[in-house]
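Hey all, sorry for the wall of text incoming. These are the two entities for the joint prediction.
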Amino acid sequence: MTNPNGYESLPNAIINGASGPTVSCRINGSEVELPDGTTILDAARLLRLEIPTLCKHADLDPTAACGLCIVKVEGTHKMPRACCTPVEEGMEITTHNAEIMDVRRTVVELILSKHPTDCLTCGRNQNCELQTVASDFGIRQAVMPNIAHDLDRDSSSQALTLDPARCITCGRCVHICQDIQNVHALCFLDRGYGTRIAPAGVSLGESPCVRCGQCSAHCPTGAIFEFDETRDVWEYLMTPEYHAVVQIAPSVRVAIGEAFGLAPGTNLTGKLYAVLRRLGFDAVFDTNFGADVTILEEASEFIQRFLHGRGELPLITSCCPSWVDFMEKFHGDMIDHFSTCKSPHEIVGVLTKTYYADKMGIDPSRIRCVSVMPCTAKKWEIKRHESMSASGFQDVDVSITTRELARMIKQAGISFLDLEEEECDPVLGDYTGAGTIFGVTGGVMEAALRTAADLITGETMEQLEYNTVRGLDGVKEAGVEIAGRQVRVAVAHGLGHVETVLNRIREAREAGDEPPYHFVEVMACPGGCVGGGGQPYGVTNEVRMARARGLYSDDARRTVRKSHENPHVQMLYKDFLKEPLSAKAHQLLHTRYQARLTYTR
Amino acid sequence: MGKLNRDDLDRLESEYQESRQERDYIRVGMSTCGIAAGAEPVYRFLCEEIRRRALDVEVRRSGCLGMCHAEPLVEVSVAGAPRSLYGEVGLDAARRILDQHVEKGLVLAGMLASQDGLLAPPEETVPRIGRQLRIVLRNCGIIDPTKIEEYIARGGYQGLKRALFELGPESVIEEMRTAGLRGRGGAGYPAWLKWKLTRDAEGAEKYMICNGDEGDPGAYMDRSVLEGDPHSVIEGMLIGALAIGASQCYFYIRAEYPLAVDRIETAIKQARRMGLVGKNILGSNFSCEMEVRLGAGAFVCGEETALIASLEGRRGTPRPRPPYPAQYGLWQMPSNINNVETLANVGPLIARGGKWFASIGTESSKGTKVFAVTGKVRHSGLVEIPMGTTIREIVMDICGGAEGGKHIKAVQTGGPSGGVIPEELFDTPVSYESLQELGSIMGSGGLIVMDEDDCMVDIAGFYLGFCVEESCGKCAPCRIGGKQVKMLLDKISARRATAKDVTELRRICHAMQKASLCGLGQTAPNPVLSTLRYFENEYEALLQ
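and here's what came out:
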């Protein structure tokens, strides 16, 4: 029952006016007409009736595991699951009555009886779907003996912590990992009440896991969460000898508000700069600046390959660390297609310990560089290769997720939302509209096209927005005309969609045909970084779209919207790097890849 | 032997019959039950002795005749003496049989095995044995399952021939509908309807699947059929494949049945060699391939959607239905899954017609049912009775009642999904509906007899323990509920429970029935609820 193409939740399809055959049924006595195929769960939601569930997630096909969403259907003695039962013509459905409530309550008690009771020390305390359900059902006493297993935690990936004892085997993580991401690191092992989630036979660190963290973003409980490194950050902040520097990724600014009760997409850039200073950072930078630098390097790389035939086409983006990991593990034959340019936060990291340190006369050994990312894989990326220490020190010392920063702000007791907006430190902070849209699928491509078009034509092109690469379609293909030549591009997000694109490239290569694309962007997470595995919980496509809108309006608001027009980037090249792809740029801003084809599927 | 066409089949049937009638033979039951009881050394001994004594007697092997209590079984047919069936034959007995019966024509009356008046395996192709009527087991214990000729000699593949050349897919389904054959795996879903739904579903491919993942404790009729008469299942599969429009069949057989797997694989090879499997079967334009897949040892893989997942190489866990396999089955294609016993009925049903089949049984439950009768009963074994036979007839008459003069208290039917039926209700005629009304189910046909020494709380605990072990772990009500119920039963057995615990027991059982995803979890509480229904006093006696 996999549907790798379908992220859209049904109510959306209905609200957007799906046409086609309909059925009418009665829910709790109310007559409703619904598109054929609507599940009882979605039908009830349209009537503003929430049926509890712990396994169904809007992004995913129903796994039908938890058994909470059972309802009564007239004419059958069984209680079908609302999450996976389509409404049928004439169906009479009851969503709440004494018997249903009694069964649901028993199911909640059963799940609790197989779950640890130490909520206070759980990574999801106060942010746990099971806790919410238990609270809603007013469970005040454990009637059944607790039979939770004592299972070891697994933090070997240094990006995610697996705490299988807290797993309720809802199956979301396995579904995401196998069917949506096509990684197959997580699976169910053993059976019966010993069933647990784990990589088969190895630790997570040794498994094919690419650390995208989608499992953690979808887990209803504390069974998988980000590898918490806030302690290190506090240490940097509390140690006077250190010069603590921070940078925030594009998509963090439009998502962190959700952890403080704001709507998805609310842009908190200025408040984030302010709160980071309040936390004690000595300099506040912005990864968007690094994104602008990435674009200069990557667009130049593209021109080298596209116009001068130096290197393989298509050029494939490499700023997503899960994608890099995935490529190295499963698609090593694509290495020559990869942009060697580092990801934006690594660029800000290395420039902090070289360019900025020089400029400010700070000993780089005293600098501690923290990046705040929507991403769990960034925790791994900062150590993935020796080139990540191009400054002579590890360029980024610690990478934390949006969720971790939200906790730090809460710990510090700062009234985040009441702060006045501030500016960042401009040296490595000022950014363009092109830099900020890195956080959404298609954004890197769009930013690169803005710069590439100007560089190729030598003119300042009018076109800024490339709508064909925007949106949540799994694979977006477009043709763009630059200087009379057709540039064929493809954008894929969600690793499950990548294979289609890669296979097309391979087929052409094997047939000796011209490559189907010239430039390909890949982001591992559905929606790109706005849907990153380290973002606040509760992501759905609506949330992804709202966050994306936040970034696109940030872009639209900017006076400078092309990376190469960023004055601070221009200064960086003038004073330090000389020009894109210079020897210095190569030394500091580029990396290498190695095939690690250890896994087969 | 080359590939057969439609006319070869009849010719071969009579040729084989004739060639075998004249010879003297000794036949040894060599199914798992016989082998476990020591049939192999007996068989080897007989072969060697006959060679040494230079007797003109053929030593044959057969499957299980159903009289498992009397294994090893040896049938002797020599000119000048009545055909006889000897039970519990060891090496000494085998020597005496050779000395007296084979060489001198003297029947050893004290060593004869009998059940329900049967003194020797019957000759008819659909034999009656006392109260039993054998359609499914028609050849079990009579033919050598490794020889396709013996199956053909007893009318084998005549159903397939009729389906191919007289009926065609639509009429086959119509015959099935007339016959009223219902699924023998347990649920009793009309087989014709399943076939029709799969036939009507759209799909580039369709698959016919045989569910040989028999797993109920105490049930082994499917194994006996696969071991004792593999071609009967293959014939059923071919007719089904023709009816639904499939050209590929899969046998899903549990790996713990190595002999069954071996016999089916041999049978498929033979059938392929004779043009009964493969391209242009019997010269028709119907082609169908067949493969065997092994189950990996999970009870839940008998559930259709879990079986499909397992066949595809995935973890064997059920998924929600709809969509049903008939629309969305193996590799997303319309697929039909039938149980072994269901399929073994199909050949004779089609050969003799749906009306004949419908004349057997009750109004709603047609045909026969095979029960594997075990427990505290004198003659344990396989019994095939027309639907409508009472439980008392099965237990008391056919199987000889209790051992050692004890009082029989109840029977358990339907395995871990079933329930107990107390002795006072033994006059109930067996049908899908009647057993359900009593709080049990027909199930796959396990029938375990319990006497006055058996504690009903223990019985419930045994079945619950089985379900706890076998729960796939996917859905919470089954995964955790089963464990909690088992712990409560253990508490009651240990005399530490109170009346409140029994209330709790009922509450969790109710939630499991209503909120479990698949049949395993939904029915797992049945043994508890049915023992509570009929033997609540035994629970109360254990409470504090």
